[in-house]
Amino acid sequence: MSTQPAVDPRGPRFAAIVTTVVLVVVLATDWWPLLAAQTVVFAIGAFVGLRPAPYSVLYRLLVAPRLQPTGEREDAAPLRFAQAVGFAFALVGTIGYAFGVTAVGIVATALALFAAFLNAAFGFCLGCEMYLLLQRLSPRAGSAS
Amino acid sequence: MTGLIVAGVTIVAAVVVGLVVRSRNGRIRTSGDGGTVTSAAPGGRAQDGVAPDGVSADGAALAGLPADVRDALTGEPADVTLVQLSTTFCAPCRQARALLTHVAERTDGLRHVDLDVTDKPGIARDLGVLRTPTTIAYARSGVELLRVSGVPKQEELLAALEPRLSGARRPIAERPEGGRPTE
């Protein structure tokens, strides 16, 4: 994990802002294909890498050239974990919408929005800091400890 | 329409939670603050902050702690040991580690131990810790003095621990390199 390249911390912040907007649009329109696309975006960030993640590419192409370069770097592992958490919620939401269980779609999307907004507005990575809580809630944790 | 309302409510809730978390970041809590810390470990937190350094409760306080924490305290005893709980997935843990290592190096009688509990959820559960980084200050006896969630604030932490440190405190001028200055 530690061998992963560190990233400019403003990239993930930008990604969180885009994610927030996308999720609000999903909730406002119930247009689930957009949520499906967001699910794919999360999946790339979580399972492929942050560099090829679409919003990171967007950041590098559009935003980074307009900002002062920074020497600040952030470890990639927490960010990829957060993307995986986002992926899980977005996947449940997409399935909910797609199969007509709109309530599930709305709730899952709202939870993803909650986390994305906290990251965008406060720089607070809910999934990362709450890892212990998530672990405790997951059924695996019971047998692991 | 329902979705739009849900979106609005979600964002309002996130703002509230964000403000609460921000205000709690780095704030020092002792058991007297109540509520936030649970007494999951039997005997572990019964007398903290109250007993005179746990003179009589030595054994009990240490015995109530998870083995890794106990080892951290007894391995190289100090007046105060800061046990930081971290996970691999936690970015502010690195900032906290940098800060606390820096502070401990320059303060007599103060030690810092970083425990990675990514694969040891039992420790976090026994200590009632839900969030990382959480830093718990232990007296030599194993009695808990205070705990801090998020990245601690150097001056406040030192001020709170000062009565517990026998050595004279040296002033710390510069901040550690690296890490982000703010969150």
From TrEMBL, chain A:
Pfam (any one): DUF4395
Membrane-traversing stretches: 12-34, 40-63, 84-107, 113-134
Keyword Plastid assigned: no
Keyword field contains Cytoplasm: no
Annotated DUF4395 domain residues: 7-136
Key words of the record: Membrane, Transmembrane, Transmembrane helix
Alphabetized InterPro entries for the sequence: DUF4395
Coiled-coil residue spans: none
Protein name as it appears in the record: DUF4395 domain-containing protein
Origin organism lineage: Bacteria, Bacillati, Actinomycetota, Actinomycetes, Pseudonocardiales
TrEMBL record, chain B:
Signal peptide: none
Residues of the Thioredoxin domain: 40-166
Domain of life: Bacteria
Name listed for the protein in its UniProt record: Thioredoxin family protein
Organism: Prauserella salsuginis
